[in-house]
């Protein structure tokens, strides 16, 4: 294995590792990186690199520029102050980091032995392949891949792309939406996809089609254009959706074309219009448009939801929901991360309960346990195993930092009142009633219930679960956090004093609602008083309940 900085280039398994964790890479960028790493410290000319990777094939040098941009993004490198890849203008590139050779350690070797097909997604991959086969027959497909954050949409799309790129006839063009850019830059993911298309193995042919049918669109990808095509560009040409759709359909006449747009919940309206137009056009084309999105991502105005509803209703699109992993797949994922088949006692149950099958959460929880030295690797060589050396932590022990940051970013995009409602909701359990949120905030119950309904419609991590009948004959809606980890983040972001006040208000409201039947909610009220730090009132509630029970028994 070639080692440089925190990266390892595993040539045997054709993968790049960062701190031992694999990074998904397409075959050609990996091949470029491999050639540079295997020839460190010396100038690699454009011609040498092209001859090594595309023997007996004419490829424009501009293709290398696209791959270098991708590699620098993966490595976190800066072209101005390179740590890894230095550009020598008009000559080529030099790999400047120190490269060492080392054997894979036992944990890494074990992980590689366990690493196989994507975990728990065989059915989803099979369906994507079946839809692509329809596209290959000329039945264009628009597929919305939806699921909560961290559930594995990108991993599934990556696995699907790897299958497509292994088929020489298929073209793949991929672009991603970026939060905050959608409202400022039109067609951001489309332009990225076009540049990738023009820089691909059949980039020259793609450029010629765009130059003939949509020259103004080709001008947006000038970094990937060949000199030949640049000379025929029409500067005055106006960009139209019709031109681009016709060009993409032309490209998809002989060979199948897959357009992949990620995170379209952040897409600009123009990109959504393109998806809509490609779905509605009637010309036969071997075309597949695959998008990923996180539903109900927090926007009160959701044009993506309207587009999906319309296309699905007209049977012009397909939605695939990526669900959390089932328990067996979670166990496989844990085993892969630890590099051992036999899991430490109690670990599987703990991780599955904490993660609820979300792959990102699974990995974060396992890494957190290792960082906190709850899991420690003991033994030497092939006999080394991960073992628990401390009890698995409760909620108060904290949330793994990567998850904390991700969830905090989601919460920060909400209004202050909405954040306060969710914080108040976290004082209950994973399930929370609207009346408790209203009590904690000293707000009107009806108004809070309406606001909670709005959150449940917009947020992927809040779900309306039903209604509860109250002792006075009224009812109150109740809701659930999709994951307990969201509840933990919201609980911990409140100050201890604020939590205490709110816990006491909920306990007092419980007493009012169950006046005359206080014993039935004594334990719940005591829990809130205890959480508020008022052990005296907690004990008093439980003692009063015992007296009531004894008196009822005597009667």
Question: If you had to describe this structure to a student in words, what would you say it looks like?
Answer:
This protein is an alpha+beta fold and 555 residues long. The protein has 4 domains: 2-104, Arc Repressor Mutant, subunit A; 122-233 and 240-321, Rossmann fold (3-Layer(aba) Sandwich), CATH 3.40.50; 342-393, no CATH class; 402-554, Arc Repressor Mutant, subunit A. 49% of the residues lie in helices and 15% in strands. The chain contains 24 helices and 18 strands. The strands form 5 sheets. It has a 5-stranded antiparallel sheet, covered by helices on one side. Strands 10-11-12-9-13 form a 5-stranded parallel sheet, sandwiched between helices. Helix 14 (327-338) packs across helix 16. The protein is globular and about 90 Å long.
SSE layout and pairing:
Elements: E1 2-4, E2 7-10, E3 15-18, E4 21-23, H1 27-37, E5 44-45, H2 46-53, H3 62-75, E6 85-88, E7 92-95, E8 100-101, H4 106-114, H5 122-136, E9 141-146, H6 153-165, E10 171-176, H7 188-199, H8 203-213, H9 215-218, H10 227-230, H11 241-254, E11 257-262, H12 269-280, E12 287-293, H13 303-313, E13 318-321, H14 327-338, H15 347-355, H16 359-371, E14 375-378, E15 385-388, H17 401-412, H18 416-425, E16 431-433, H19 434-441, H20 445-458, E17 462-469, E18 475-481, H21 484-492, H22 496-513, H23 522-531, H24 535-554
Parallel strand pairs: 9-12, 9-13, 10-11, 11-12
Antiparallel strand pairs: 1-2, 1-8, 2-3, 3-4, 5-7, 6-7, 14-15, 16-18, 17-18
Helix pairs in contact: 1-3, 3-7, 4-14, 7-8, 8-11, 12-13, 14-16, 15-16, 17-21, 18-19, 19-20, 19-22, 22-23, 23-24
């Amino acid at each position: 294995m070639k080692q440089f900085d925190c990266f390892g280039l595993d040539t045997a398994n054709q993968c790049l590792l960062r701190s031992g964790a694999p990074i998904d890479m397409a075959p050609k960028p990996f091949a470029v990186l491999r050639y540079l790493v295997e020839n460190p410290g010396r100038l690699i000319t454009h011609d040498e690199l092209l001859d090594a990777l595309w023997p007996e094939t004419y490829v424009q040098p501009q293709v290398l520029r696209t791959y270098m941009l991708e590699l620098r993004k993966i490595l976190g490198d800066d072209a101005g102050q390179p740590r890894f890849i230095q550009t020598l203008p008009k000559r080529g590139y030099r790999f400047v980091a120190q490269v060492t050779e080392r054997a894979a350690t036992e944990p890494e070797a074990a992980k590689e032995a366990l690493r196989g097909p994507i975990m728990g997604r065989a059915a989803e991959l099979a369906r994507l392949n079946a839809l692509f086969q329809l596209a290959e027959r000329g039945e264009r497909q628009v597929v919305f891949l939806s699921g909560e954050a961290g559930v594995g949409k990108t991993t599934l799309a990556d696995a699907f792309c790897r299958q497509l790129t292994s088929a020489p006839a298929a073209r793949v063009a991929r672009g991603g939406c970026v939060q905050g850019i959608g409202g400022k830059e039109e067609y951001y993911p489309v332009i990225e996809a076009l540049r990738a298309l023009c820089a691909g193995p059949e980039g020259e042919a793609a450029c010629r089609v765009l130059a003939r049918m949509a020259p103004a669109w080709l001008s947006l990808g000038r970094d990937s254009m060949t000199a030949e095509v640049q000379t025929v560009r029409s500067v005055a040409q106006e960009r139209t959706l019709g031109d681009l759709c016709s060009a993409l359909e032309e490209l998809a006449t002989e060979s199948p074309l897959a357009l992949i747009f990620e995170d379209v919940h952040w897409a600009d309206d123009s990109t959504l219009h393109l998806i809509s137009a490609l779905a509605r056009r009637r010309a036969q084309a071997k075309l597949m448009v695959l998008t990923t999105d996180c539903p109900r991502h927090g926007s009160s105005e959701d044009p993506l939801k309207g587009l999906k509803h319309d296309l699905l209703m007209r049977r012009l699109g397909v939605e695939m929901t990526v669900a959390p992993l089932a328990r067996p797949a979670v166990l496989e994922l844990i085993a892969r991360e630890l590099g051992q088949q036999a899991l430490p006692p109690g670990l599987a149950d703990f991780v599955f309960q904490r993660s609820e099958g979300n792959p990102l959460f699974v990995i974060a929880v396992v890494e957190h346990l290792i960082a906190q030295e709850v899991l420690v690797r003991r033994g030497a060589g092939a006999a080394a195993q991960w073992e628990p050396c401390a009890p698995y932590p409760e909620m108060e022990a904290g949330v793994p930092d990567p998850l904390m940051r991700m969830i905090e970013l989601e919460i920060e995009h909400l209004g202050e009142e909405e954040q306060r409602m969710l914080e108040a909701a976290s004082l209950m359990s994973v399930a929370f009633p609207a009346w408790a949120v209203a009590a904690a905030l000293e707000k009107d119950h009806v108004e809070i219930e309406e606001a909670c309904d709005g959150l449940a419609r917009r947020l992927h991590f809040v779900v309306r679960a039903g209604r509860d009948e109250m002792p006075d004959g009224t009812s109150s809606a109740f809701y659930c956090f999709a994951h307990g980890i969201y509840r933990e983040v919201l609980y911990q972001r409140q100050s201890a004093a604020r939590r205490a006040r709110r816990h006491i208000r909920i306990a007092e409201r419980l007493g009012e609602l169950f006046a005359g039947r206080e014993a039935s909610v004594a334990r719940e009220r005591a829990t809130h008083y205890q959480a508020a730090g008022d052990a005296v009132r907690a004990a008093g509630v439980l003692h009063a309940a015992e007296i009531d029970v004894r008196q009822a028994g005597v009667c």
